[in-house]
Amino acid sequence: MTASTSSSSDVKVILLDIEGTVCPISFVKDVLFPYALRALPETLEAQWDSPEFAKYKDAFPPEYRTSKDQFSAHVQDLMDRDVKIAYLKSLQGYLWEEGYAAGHLKAPLFPDVSDKLSVWHQNGLKIMIYSSGSVPAQKLLFKHTNAEPADLTPLISGWFDTVNAGLKTETKSYQTIAESHPEVPAGQWLFLSDNTREVEAAITTGMKSIVVQRPGNPELPLGVIGRLPIIDSFSSLGDSFDSVSSQ
After folding, report:
1. What is the dihedral angle through the alpha carbons of 128, 134, 138, 144, rounded to the nearest 10 degrees?
2. Is the pTM of this model over 0.85?
3. Residue 244 in contact with residue 2, Cβ under 8 Å?
4. Can you say how many angstroms the Cα of residue 156 is from the centroid of all Cα atoms in its chain?
5. Could you report the per-residue pLDDT of 49-104, keeping only the tens digit for each?
6. Which of 194, 180, 178 is closest to 234 using CA atoms?
7. pLDDT score, position 243
């Protein structure tokens, strides 16, 4: 199917998911998550009582702050179950910071992403991010990419996570995001995500939204093809949104 917009004025803000949309799911699951778990024991040993680490530790429920072992076991459990809870996401961002800075971590963006973001930015479109990862973690990822230049943060004008917006499958979260920029009506936002439930929530709010089906993503749920617009590359979107092609 094909979703069309009448002119470039129909879209003013492009709101992007990260995992499975701008970079492979495997980068998060197979690189970032294991790195955080490897870095955790040394971090706990060196910083357990430090003021710098206190804001991350103190965000955890009290029963998991009684010892390093309890804390570490809870982190492992949450990550094994891929629980998207704010205090875990904040800790992960902190653990990844050193890895990015040392060059051990670099976000492998899909080939179409960096050039398209640059063109959209040059054309006056606002680019914003909405991910379950914390805002600091989002900024680290876009600051350390495989693009040239590697730092894409100057192209991005807004950052949203589950703390400042809410859960990504809830309609209210997209209302919160749209209301944070009242100068742009909801209908002039375009949300791109690999998650069909997130796309449906955004559409319910009045946003435009498209499913991004990248290599390595899970198969789409039954009934999605033909019901929701789908693309496999940002190249399908063009530069001015005169038309949007989907599978």
Report:
1. 170
2. yes
3. yes
4. 12
5. 999 999 999 999 999 999 999 999 999 999 999 998 999 999 999 999 999 999 99
6. 194
7. 45
